[in-house]
Amino acid sequence: MQTVQVIGLGYIGLPTAALLATKGFSVIGVDTQANVVDNLNNGKIHLHEPGLDILLKSALGSGNFLATTSPRCADIHIICVPTPFKNNHEPDLSYIQSAISSLAPILNNSDLVILESTSPVGTTLKVRSWLLELRPELNNVQFAYCPERVIPGKTVLELIENDRVIGGITTEATTRAADFYKCFVEGEVLLTTAKTAELCKLAENAYRDINIAYANELSMVCDQFGINPYELIKLTNHHPRVNILQPGPGVGGHCIAIDPWFIIDAAPKLTPLLQAGRTVNNKKPEWVVNKIKASAQLFDQPTILCLGLSYKANIDDLRESPALSIAKQLTTLNIGDIIACEPHINTCDTLKLFDLKAGLEQANIIVILVNHDAFTHINWPALSNAGKQILDFTGITTNFSAAQNTRSPAFDHEGLK
Ligand SMILES: NC(=O)c1ccc[n+]([C@@H]2O[C@H](COP(=O)([O-])OP(=O)(O)OC[C@H]3O[C@@H](n4cnc5c(N)ncnc54)[C@H](O)[C@@H]3O)[C@@H](O)[C@H]2O)c1
C-alpha cells in the first residue's frame, strides 16, 4: 500500500486526503493548526463542504487516515497550502516554502512531491531548489505540478470527475504523478511540463475574471439604459458562439480575484487586459454601495437587509467576499439599520445576523448579494407588493420571474434591475 502525505488540510487538502484514504492509500494529513488536526482525528470537520463529513468518517473508518501536525515518511507528498498575495500583489510563496522546509528532514530520494497550490510559473522548480539548499543529496526526488480545479460546494465529486493537467519537472515525475492520479480520477489525465501546468491554472481563472469583468461592465451599462442585465446576457448567450458569464456585486474568493495577479506580477507590461479586468471587478462593490445609498435616500432610516455574505453561492467562505465588504461598508455610512442573513454561518463580528424570515419581515430594502439556493424560493413579487424595495445584484429575481412568467419585481423598481 502506497503512503500519501497531504500537507495543508483546508478546502483542497482535506477532501483530497479523505478521498485517497477511501481509495486504499495509507494517508497522513498534516496541518499546522493543532485544533484542526485534533478535530479531524475525532471525525469533526472545520469547513462547510457537502459530503465531506461522510467522506472523513469513511476515511477514519477505513483505518487509512491519520491527521498530525508534523510530516512523516511517505512515498508521495502533496502540497495544498495557501498561496495568497502580498500588499503589492506580489505572490506570497512563504507557505509553500515552509511546507517544503518541514518535509526536508523526512524526504527520501525515491519520493514524489506534487504541488497542488495555485502557483506562479516556475514555482515547482523553486520548490526543488529550496529542498536542495537544505538537503543537496536529495537530487533524485521527483517534482510535479498538478493544479486543482474543483468548485467549492462540489469538491468531493469534482475531485474524481474533473480532468487533471499534470506537469513534472522531469518526464519520470510526470509519468509517476499521472499514474498516481489515474488511481482515483475518472476524468482525463493530461500530461505536460510543470511550467505549462502552472500557467494553465492561472490562465483558466484569469479567463473567468476577464469574462466576469465584461459581464460586470455590461451590467452597469444596462443600468444606465434601464435594461435588466441578466435578461440581456441570457439572450446574448443564445448566439451559438457567445457565452458571457453572470455579473454580480464583485469578484471574491481566493482564486479568481487572486490568480490573475500571479500573471500580472510576472509580466506587467504584457497584461493590460488582465489589469483592466481586475480594476473593473474591484470597483463593482463601490458601484453597488452607491446604488444602495441612492435607494436608502427614498426612506427615513430604513432597515437594509443584506442577503448573503459569502463570496459565492451555497458556501460559508467569506474570504475576499465582495458581499461581506459591501455589507460592512454600509454599516459605516449612517444610511439606516444594516442587518444581514447568511444561512451558512452562525456568527459575524461586525454585522447583526438575522434568520431569513425575521430579516425579510423587518427590512425596508432587501439587497441580494449572493444567490444562495436558500433564497431561490422567496416570493419576491409578494415582498415587492408589500412595499419593500428589492435590489438584486445576482439575477436571482430574474430567474424567479421567468419561472413564474412575470416580470422581475426588481426590474420594476428604481435601483439595480
Ligand atoms: N479552495 C478552492 O476552491 C481552491 C480551488 C483551486 C485551487 N486552490 C488552491 O489550493 C491551495 C489551498 O487552498 P485552500 O482553499 O485549501 O486553503 P485553506 O486555507 O482552506 O487550507 C490551507 C491549509 O493549509 C494549512 N497550512 C498552511 N501552511 C502549512 C504548512 N506549512 N504545513 C501544513 N499545513 C499548512 C493551513 O492551516 C490550512 O488549514 C491554494 O493555493 C489555493 O489557491 C483552492
Would you kindly provide a written description of the structure presented here, covering whatever features stand out?
Keywords: NAD, Oxidoreductase. Pfam families: UDPG_MGDP_dh, UDPG_MGDP_dh_C, UDPG_MGDP_dh_N. It comes from Candidatus Shapirobacteria bacterium CG10_big_fil_rev_8_21_14_0_10_36_6. Residues 305-399 form the UDP-glucose/GDP-mannose dehydrogenase C-terminal domain. The protein has 417 residues and is an alpha/beta fold. The protein contains 15 helices and 13 strands. It has helices spanning 13-22, 34-41, 52-62, 94-103, 123-134, 155-161, 171-181, 194-225, 229-236, 259-266, 272-296, 322-331, 356-362, 380-385, 396-403, and strands spanning 3-7, 26-30, 65-68, 76-79, 112-115, 142-145, 164-168, 189-193, 303-307, 337-341, 352-353, 365-368, 389-392. Helix 4 packs across helix 5 (123-134) and helix 8 runs parallel beside helix 11. Residues 403-417 have low confidence and may be disordered. It binds nicotinamide-adenine-dinucleotide (NAD). Residues 7-13, 30-33, 36, 80-83, 95, 98-99, 102, 117-118, 148, 150, 152, 254-255 line the site of nicotinamide-adenine-dinucleotide.
